[in-house]
Design goal:
mainly alpha, globular, single chain
């Protein structure tokens, strides 16, 4: 469990540049809300993390409801492949996961139209709802993380993995909200992203190796 949670946190942390591009604008705008700016910002991010956690739990529950050996083995292979793909994506070596964003854009459009009714934000509760909707936006990093979390086949672990992924995105997002330029610069550093990407690739390859090595045992 610890390995999965550390990997999920590292994935969110290393995806700082991507998160800033997708959500940085609204995160910065929320802090301009005068006296309620801080409350709005915290409510938004709380809603965002809640969305990730609930989606992770739902997918983990769905994946775990199928008790077939071949299904379990297939999910373990998928977990290893996704870790490798996400590591390459984070490090900037391979952008295959961008096709997820193009597909997700179709599902996001009706949600995006509905969120327009929440603006301008006047209360933290509206910011929290907006944050929950933002968890559905077409982001290859979010979608692939959800698919990876589902491979745990346990709604509790899947939920925790997505929560830790969300926590990993917080330093960059809060730095944007509160104007911490140095933190943003650190999280954007290519060396850090490459290091975490490489660690994710190694974790994925190890997962694939152990699945192959114990394939016959898992089949039984």
């Amino acid at each position: 469990m610890i390995t999965e949670l550390v990997s999920a946190f590292g994935l969110g942390l290393a995806g700082a540049g991507h998160c800033l591009g997708m959500c940085g604008g609204i995160a910065a705008a929320l802090q301009l809300g005068g006296g309620q700016g801080t409350g709005m910002t915290l409510a938004y991010h709380g809603g965002r993390l809640t969305s990730y956690t609930v989606l992770g739990a739902a997918l983990g529950l769905a994946a775990g409801s199928i008790d077939i050996a071949a299904w379990t083995i297939g999910l373990r292979y998928l977990a290893g492949i996704l870790l490798v793909a996400m590591g390459c994506y984070i490090a900037g070596w391979w952008h295959l996961l961008q096709w997820l964003e193009r597909g997700g854009a179709v599902l996001w459009r009706p949600v995006q139209k509905w969120t327009g009714s929440l603006l301008p934000l006047r209360h933290p509760a509206q910011a929290a709802v907006l944050g929950m909707c933002w968890g559905l936006m077409p982001c290859g990093l979010i979608y692939s993380s959800l698919a990876w979390a589902a491979t745990a086949q346990d709604y509790r672990l899947s939920a925790l993995m997505m929560l830790f992924f969300g926590l990993g995105t917080l330093p960059a997002m809060l730095a944007t909200s509160f104007g911490a330029g140095r933190v943003q610069a650190l999280l954007r550093r290519r060396g850090l992203k490459a290091l975490i990407g490489l660690l994710l690739i190694c974790a994925g390859l190890w997962s694939l190796y152990t699945t192959i090595a114990h394939h016959s045992h898992l089949g039984h």
